[in-house]
Amino acid sequence: MRGGASANADLIVVRDGERPSIGPAELRLEDGTTRIVDRRLPADLPHGYHQIKRKRGHPGRLIVAPFECFLPPDLRGWGWAIQLYAARSRRSWGIGDLAALRRLGEWGKKAGASFALISPLSAPIPLLPQQASPYFASTRLYRNPLFLSMEEVPGAREIDGFAEVALEGRTLNRDRRIDRDAIFRLKLGVLETLWSRVRHRPDERFERFVSEQGPVLWQYALFCALSERFGGGWHAWPANLRHPDAPAVRRASRDEATADRIRFHQWVQYQLDRQLARASAVLPVMQDLPIGFDADGADGWAFQDALAHGIGVGAPPDEFNTRGQDWGLPPFVPGKLRAAGYEPFIQTIRACLRHAGGLRIDHVMGLFRLFWIPFGAEPAQGAYVRLPASDLLAIVALESQRARAVIVGEDLGTVEDETRAELAARRILSYRLIWFEKAPPSTFPEQALSAITTHDLPTVAGLWSGSDFEAQRALKLAPNEAGTREIHDRVAKMTRATSRTPVSAVIARLHASLATAPSRLLTATLDDAMAVPERPNMPATTHQWPNWSIPLPEPIETLKSNRLAASIARALGRRTRRRGR
Q: Is 508 helix (H, G, I), strand (E, B) or coil?
C-alpha cells in the first residue's frame, strides 16, 4: 500500500483540546523533533501526522487535527460550474483542456466570478477504449492526460508535423460527441515523440516534482506502464503482478523499457500539474472528489488490501432515480482502512486539494455510511455500512486548513439530520439545489453552496421544455412524472413564466431568484448559460445516453458575447455586491 502505515499499526486521531492517555511513548513529530510522553498527550502538539514509538510493539500513527475546516468568515462569492471536457475552445483538440480552463477563469474573473467548480480531473487507465466517466477513474490521485493543452507543453510545437496533427485535433471540435479514443491517440503520439527528445535533458523542476510526489507517483506510473504491457485492468495480469508489493513487480520495474515508461508517465503528470497550477492561479478552482474509483484501476491495485471485494457502492431508489443506482465502485472496509493509518484517504484528499481553493466532496454521506450492493444484486437489495466519520472528517479538516481550501459536502438525497449538523459544526458547506428544495432560495442556509441543478439532473432548458422527461421515458427509466411537474410548476411561479416565455428568459429569471439565497457560495452552469437541453449524465444508463460526452454547443470564446451568460453573471454579481456592502 502506497506509503501507508503498517497493517497492524496503532492509530490515534485527536482534535484540538483532546488529551487522551497513551501511556509512556516517544512522539516523533512531522518536523523531525521528538517529545516524550509519560501518560497523556500534551495540549500543545502541532497539527499533523506524527509517529508513536513505544518500547514494545509496532510504531503507531498519531493524527492531530483541527476540528473545523478552512472557511473565511467573510467568504461570499459565486462561480461557474464547468464540465471541463465539454468546455472546448477553438484551440482544443476535441475536448476541453486546462488552457481552456485558464481562459474561462480570465473571462469569469472579469465578470465577477470568484471561483470555478470543475468536474473531476481523475485519470483513467491509459488504454483504449478510454473511460468517459470522470467518476469511474483509475485513480483519484492523478490527472487525465486528455486535459493537457498540447500547444502549451514546452517543445511540442517544434515537433515535425505538429501543425498537421494540431489541425487534425481541432477538426475533432466539429463532432457533437467527444471522441476520447481519437483524442487519446493524437495526444499520446505527440507526448511520446516529445518525450523521446527530452527524456535525457536535465530538468530540475521535473526532478523536484518527482521527488516531492515520491513513491505515490512512482507506483501510479508503474501501474500505467504495466497496464500498457499486459493490457486492461490488473485482475487480468499475470498472478505474480497483481499485488504492488510482490517481488515480481519490483523486478518488472527494473526492466529498461518499463523504467522508461515509468519516467514517461511521471513526466506527463508533471506537465498536467504545471498547466493546472497556471489555470488555478487565474481564478481559484474548486475540485470535485468522486466517491470512488475503478476496481481494476491504479487505486484498486494499490489499495486492494483495504477494499471490500465483490461489493459495489451506489444509492437506494429515490424520487429522481426510482430504480436506485449501482456505481460499481469498490468501498473501503472501515477496519482495514483504519489499520492502514487512513493513508489511502489522506493521499486522496491531499491530491484533490493540490492547486485548489476548494473541494466538493461528491456524496459526502460516504464519509458516514455507504450503500453496499453485492455484485449481481439490485440496488434495492443493498444495505448501509457505517464508516469512522469522526476520523475521516478530522483528516479533511487538517488537509483543508493546510491547503486553505473551502470544503463543500454534496449532501443531496437521503441524509440524516445529525449528519448535516455534524458537517455544519465542521464548517463544511452544505449543497442546496433549487430542483430539490421546496422553499424559495431566500430561505436556503447561509453555510451552503447553492445552485439550480447539477450534472446528474435536468438542465433548466431540459426541464422547462420537457425534453429531459421525454428522454427519460424513451430510455424506459420510469421518470417521476409528478415530481417533474411539481418542479416545473415551482419554476413557473418563481419566474412568472408561461408556456410562451422563451427558455432564455426562464433561465435568466431563475438565476435572479437563486441570487436571493443567503448562501456563502452560488454557482451557475455553463450548460445553462448556453441553454443546453441535455443533461451531462443520465443516471442508470450506460450506452443508452452519451454520458460525459456532450460538448457545449459553442466554443468557449463565444461566451464573451453571450447575453444569457452576461445576464446570469450580473444577477449573481449584484447579490455578491449587495452583501459586500
A: helix
